[in-house]
Specification:
The complex is a heterodimer.
Chain A lengths: L23 H17 L4 E2 L5 E3 H4 L12 E5 L4 E5 L4 H9 L9 E10 L11 E10 L4 H16 L6 E6 L3 H8 L4 H12 L3 H7 L4 H9 L2 E2 H10 L4 H20 L4 E5 L13 E6 L7 E7 L7 E8 H7 L8 E4 L7 H6 L3 E4 L7 H7 L4 E4 L2 E4 L2
Parallel strand pairs in A: 1-5, 7-9, 13-14, 13-15
Antiparallel strand pairs in A: 2-4, 3-4, 5-6, 6-12, 7-10, 8-9, 10-11, 11-12, 15-16
Helix pairs in contact in A: 1-4, 1-11, 4-10, 5-10, 6-7, 7-8
Chain B lengths: L6 E6 L4 H10 L17 E3 L5 E6 L1 H9 L5 E5 H7 L4 E6 L5 E8 L13 E6 L2 H9 L4 E6 L6 H4 L5 E6 L3 H5 L2 E10 L1 E6 H6 L1 H17 L1
Parallel strand pairs in B: 1-3, 1-4, 7-8, 7-9
Antiparallel strand pairs in B: 2-3, 4-11, 5-11, 6-9, 6-10
The chains are: A alpha+beta, B alpha/beta.
């Protein structure tokens, strides 16, 4: 048998990686620029962390959740292990805690970039994905929770995404209930798996004394109008009741602040929110197979730093949910007609210059996917 | 790419379907007649609810359709759910039908021949490679899986593997092939499953069907 590399096709890419071609690459660049502009308009200043960092820093604290997703390599210069970022949130939190440690709080930062992960999921097999996000650091106020959701929603709606909804969750609620009932170790793992799948029958088996309460908690998910009253009725341990009050306050104030945004509540959602320490959220759009972005409250450093909240928007998911991208009209400029082209570029046309005289300018324009040809300083539509 | 506006319920072909049918009736769901004809080539079926369509696929494929949001609702055994463990699938309801169990079985004459505690490696014919690997890994045994899609009971007699991991309802197929159940992995019943994103974005419609199926299952 010959080696796998002997027959490697030139165009083959490693699994989960792909080339973006026209017009998809332009659509992505435009969408990212518009998202970043929306965040910047709310005072979030752009930062750009590097692709690679020392593993120890990248995967400490909140970053530990990304450890199984992170590519590592040896840095030949420092002889230390470095990790290729699988998420940018922890990088921005590191910047806030270190180099921008003396900047006034609350600190608002935003970012856009590509991340790489060891393995995609079945539903999202991409291994290189784009992230656009914002972090609001140094405030524990409910107003910060509201701002994070509202700014993200505004950015998404600004891209023309329809049927947007936000799912509010509270990853600290179930752990608080489990602590109060003394559930730990492998019991907790089994229970967590059942809760993650909203498996009420499984919760009945593995929930022990907490099972009736946890089942009611499962049933208290859904539209905010029905879920919040159901949640309010539950008799929760003290620590969990404090968490609930916070969720209710965020949901109610958010409904006033962004009345057109549909709100759902999921008090047991935990997956992907492992490092969150308070109200968290995920954005969905009707008909889309996966979420468009997520975020929530966390603490910087090793969980001992500042109160922060923020969100990450997933570029690939957003592009699927957006209306189709419209490229600028293309204008063919035959040899010698270039002088007049600048004026049309200023009007938003893309000009494509002929490099050698063509027999039939209209045919040449059509061949190069131009809708117009520049003739005697005027636009002629090509049919 | 946007999904359909009609909700799609994915039902498994074969063994479970007969037990699902009375449940559908109690849930107020009637499927067009071609559905009951096993010879029909049709794969998508209308129901008495304009907003709900039914598809009939292999039991493993029910989970795939629902995970990817191609179907929003489905009926699947927890054997299938354990094998794939899709995070996009929620399992709000145990329908308590299709009861069976997932077991390790081996030829009668193998029982007591050696001490399972000394195993470092087993070779197993199964339709459930992930569940099998996890089950044996938990006690430090590496499972080498030969994936078959049916007639698992043939594997030991044909020398493909000594053991199999498969679903057992009454155990008569095992007995007929000279096999005995040596380990129990999980009890299996059919579950009502839903797509996570659909539940979040079409909450009212989705919850309506979860509630109807809950009533139907409770009434059984």
């Amino acid at each position: 048998m010959s080696g796998a590399n002997d027959n490697l096709h030139k165009a083959l890419l490693p699994q989960g990686l792909r080339d973006l071609l026209p017009p998809a690459a332009e659509a992505e660049a435009v969408a990212v620029a518009r998202l970043v502009a929306a965040l910047a308009s709310h005072g979030y200043e752009r930062v750009k962390p590097p692709l690679v960092e020392f593993e120890d820093n990248l995967l400490s604290g909140a970053g530990a959740a990304m450890a199984p997703e992170t590519f590592r390599l040896m840095d030949p210069v420092s002889q230390r292990m470095v990790g290729l970022r699988a998420d940018m949130t922890t990088q921005v939190a590191r910047i806030a805690a270190s180099r921008l440690g003396h900047s006034p709080r609350p600190l608002r930062l935003c970012y856009a970039g590509q991340v790489l992960r060891v393995k995609g999921s079945e539903v999202r097999p991409e291994r290189q994905v784009g992230q656009v996000g914002a972090e609001l650091i140094g405030s524990a106020d409910i107003a910060a929770d509201i701002e994070a959701v509202a700014v993200a929603a505004e950015a998404l709606v600004g891209l023309g995404i329809e049927g947007l909804s936000v799912d509010l969750s509270l990853p600290t609620l179930v752990p608080a209930i489990c602590r109060a009932h003394g559930i730990a170790g492998t019991d907790l793992e089994t229970l967590r798996a059942a809760l993650d799948h909203k498996d009420s029958a499984g919760v009945a088996v593995s929930g022990g004394k907490a099972a009736p309460l946890l089942q009611k908690l499962l049933a208290a998910a859904g539209a905010a109008s029905t879920a919040l009253p159901a949640l309010a009725k539950l008799d929760l341990p003290t620590e969990a009741a404090t968490e609930r009050a916070r969720l209710v306050a965020v949901a109610e104030r958010l409904a006033q602040a962004v009345p057109q945004l549909a709100i759902t509540i999921d008090p047991v959602e935990n997956r992907g929110f492992e490092y969150h320490t308070g109200v968290s959220f995920a954005f969905f759009a009707r008909g889309m197979k996966s979420e468009l972005g997520r975020g929530g409250r966390y603490r910087t450093g090793n969980g001992d730093g500042e109160d922060a909240t923020g969100f990450t928007i997933y570029t690939e998911a957003v592009l699927e949910a957006m209306p189709a991208h419209k490229s600028a009209p293309r204008l063919f400029v035959p040899v010698g007609a270039g002088a007049a082209a600048a004026a049309f570029r200023a009007q938003g046309y893309v000009t494509v210059a002929g490099l050698a005289p063509a027999k039939d300018n209209a045919a040449e324009a059509k061949r190069l996917a131009c809708g117009f040809v520049l003739t005697d300083g005027k636009l002629i539509e090509v049919h | 790419m946007r999904g359909n506006e009609t909700l799609v319920l994915a039902l498994p072909r074969g063994r479970i379907l007969g037990e699902v049918t009375p449940l559908l009736k109690r849930a107020g769901l009637e499927i067009e007649r071609a559905f009951d004809d096993p010879e029909a080539r049709q794969l998508r079926f209308k129901t008495n609810h304009e907003g709900l369509e039914v598809i009939r696929v292999r039991s493993f494929d029910v989970a795939t359709f629902v995970a990817f949001g191609a179907a929003q609702l489905g009926v699947a055994g927890n054997d299938v759910l354990m094998e794939f463990d899709y995070p996009e699938i929620y399992v709000p309801l145990d329908l308590n039908i299709g009861r069976c169990r997932l077991v390790v079985a081996a030829p009668k004459e193998d029982v007591g021949r050696d001490d399972p505690a000394r195993w470092s490696h087993v070779r197993i014919a199964t339709k459930y490679p992930e569940v099998t690997r996890r089950h044996f890994a938990q006690r430090g045994v590496q499972a080498e899986c030969i994936v078959l899609n049916g007639a698992m009971e043939l594997a030991p007699t044909m020398g493909l593997s000594r053991q199999i991991v498969d679903l057992v309802a009454t155990g008569s197929t095992l007995r007929a092939n000279g096999l005995v159940e040596i380990e129990h992995i999980a009890d299996v019943t059919s579950r009502f499953i839903v797509n996570r994103a659909a539940l979040k974005t079409r909450t009212a419609e989705m919850q309506y069907w979860v509630d109807r199926f809950r009533e139907a299952a409770d009434a059984a």
